């Protein structure tokens, strides 16, 4: 009995070694195919990006198609490697189809992001390098990938946003135009000289190098508040100078108002006490 068992073990071992000897070359070739496919995918995707950027001058489309080509070649390489291992192509397609359906059901959000990424590239809502505002989040577009878009905020933080959010939300493209309008409001005291204050603002905004001459800056009374007369200055600047103008011009206005005696009021509360109507005060007299 023991001899029969030993004979079967020897027979199975011989068959396994024979199978392994025949399988190892296919395994090695499959590994070689995967490695070569990876480098071919990198090479082709790189050349695709360069060709698209050179032809269309569109970096966003180039990066997006680069990712598509890279993933597509890797998938084709994987199928080829499995075929080389003896797996039938029809079986691979059936497995991929079944797996694809399961993945589609379980990863519907990711597939939605993929479809949204394609929409973003086709519709051109923004390009790489644009500054956008989405749901009160402001950032510069670094890249549009298959599933997400990367933004860099003004304070150098990286935000990764799902593409589906960008498709379904209103997008403000901050720097798509070369110029932007600015509205600044300055409050002056009711006792200050209104005409003088308007003249000062007109001189500052017509002479400042950040302010465009056309259209001309406009200065006028915006509102009569409880403690101040609000003056509105409406002017235009180049888009790249927007944030600098928003910082330097109010500082210049404040310094000039102080030099010229124009008071910028702060909230005040005047309390008048009538002793005749206050019994407690009358008793202390």
UniProtKB/TrEMBL annotation:
Which superkingdom, per the lineage? Bacteria
The UniProt entry lists membrane topology as: Multi-pass membrane protein
- TM regions (residue ranges): 20-41, 61-83, 89-107
Cellular component per GO, a single term: plasma membrane
Residue ranges occupied by any Mechanosensitive ion channel MscS C-terminal domain in the UniProt entry? 184-264
Q: Which residues form the Mechanosensitive ion channel transmembrane helices 2/3 domain?
A: 67-105
Q: Which UniProt keywords apply?
A: Cell membrane, Membrane, Transmembrane, Transmembrane helix
User: Which parts of the chain are coiled coil?
Assistant: none
Does the record's keyword annotation contain Cytoplasm?
A: no
Task: Name the InterPro entries for this protein.
Answer: LSM_dom_sf, MS_channel_1st, MS_channel_C, MSC_TM_helix, MscS_archaea/bacteria_type, MscS_beta-dom_sf, MscS_channel_2nd, MscS_channel_C_sf
Q: What is its main location?
A: membrane
Spell out the SUPFAM superfamilies in the cross-references: Mechanosensitive channel protein MscS (YggB), C-terminal domain, Mechanosensitive channel protein MscS (YggB), transmembrane region, Sm-like ribonucleoproteins
What are the subcellular locations of this protein? Cell membrane
**Molecular function terms in GO for this entry?**
mechanosensitive monoatomic ion channel activity
Domain spans labelled Mechanosensitive ion channel MscS: 109-175
Query: Which family is this sequence assigned to?
Result: Belongs to the MscS (TC 1.A.23) family.
Q: Which PANTHER family match?
A: SMALL-CONDUCTANCE MECHANOSENSITIVE CHANNEL
Name of protein:
Mechanosensitive ion channel
Q: Which organism is it from?
A: Helicobacter canadensis MIT 98-5491
């Amino acid at each position: 009995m023991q001899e029969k068992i030993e004979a079967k073990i020897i027979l199975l071992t011989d068959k396994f070694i024979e199978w392994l000897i025949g399988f190892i070359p296919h395994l090695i070739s499959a590994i070689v195919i995967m490695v070569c496919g990876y480098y071919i995918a990198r090479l082709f995707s790189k050349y695709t990006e360069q060709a698209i950027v050179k032809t269309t001058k569109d970096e966003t489309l180039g990066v997006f198609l680069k990712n598509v080509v890279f993933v597509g070649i890797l998938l084709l390489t994987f199928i080829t490697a499995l075929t080389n291992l003896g797996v039938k192509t029809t079986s691979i397609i059936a497995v991929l189809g079944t797996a694809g359906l399961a993945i589609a059901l379980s990863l519907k959000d990711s597939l939605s992001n993929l479809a949204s990424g394609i929409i973003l590239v086709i519709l051109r809502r923004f390009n790489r390098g644009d500054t956008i505002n989405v749901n009160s989040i402001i950032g510069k577009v670094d890249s549009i990938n298959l599933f997400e878009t990367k933004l860099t905020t003004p304070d150098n933080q990286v935000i990764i946003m799902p593409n589906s959010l960008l498709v379904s939300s209103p997008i403000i493209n901050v720097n798509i135009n070369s110029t932007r309008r600015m509205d600044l409001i300055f409050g002056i005291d009711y006792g200050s000289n209104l005409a003088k204050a308007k003249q000062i603002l007109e001189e500052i905004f017509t002479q400042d190098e950040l302010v465009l001459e056309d259209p001309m800056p406009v200065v006028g009374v915006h509102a009569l508040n409880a403690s101040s007369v609000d003056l509105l200055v409406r002017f235009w600047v180049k888009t790249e100078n927007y944030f600098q103008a928003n910082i330097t011009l109010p500082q210049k206005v404040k310094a000039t108002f102080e030099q010229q005696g124009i008071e910028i009021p702060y909230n005040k509360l005047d309390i008048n006490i009538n002793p005749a109507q206050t019994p407690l005060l009358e008793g202390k007299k």
